[in-house]
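debug: dumping io for the single-chain case to check the tokenizer round-trip. Nothing else runs in this session.
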Amino acid sequence: MIRQYRTFIGAVAIIFCTTMLILAMYTYTVNTSLGIIREDIKQSNLNRLRIFVHTLDINVEQMDLLSLAVNTDSKMKLLKSVDLMNDYEQDQLLLDISEKMKLQRFALGWDMHISVYSMMLGKWAVSSPLQDPPPGSVTDGRWLLNEDRKAFSMFRTHDRHVIHVSFPQSNVERLLIPPSWTTTILFSTIRIFR
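debug: decoded output
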């Protein structure tokens, strides 16, 4: 009886072995491909992270330099003797400084705010997101996150004025957004095949 079905059993065995071989090769190919995709995504994310850190460093460094450069402006030097000016001259000086700060604000191409607090006048000479005078306990030139306003800010204290530079937390969040929808699709694909 086995002789009658020997050809059939041989054909089934060959089909079974071929199917198992194809299945093994397919599994190996899929796993290898997914490994390559995972590695590519990992490398891509590392590269994006390096670019993000570099961009953030450059922008923060430029704002640091801007806070130092603002102090060398001729109008800022006049702010030291603002108490010797009449009301019209004070208003004109504050207007000039405010206009210069607005121009500086857009120079970096980043959403930021630069303001000046005059200790002589006891008020912000250039409009500030802060309502109160600058805190006295802040370390000069150190960036801090203000969680209430969701903004990073830094103060530079000079002879008779304080320069306040700030930028919203959303600037950092925008840098972290994936460049395209392809990254999301690739992550989804990897989760499916796990």
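debug: round-trip ok. Residues 62-175 form one domain.
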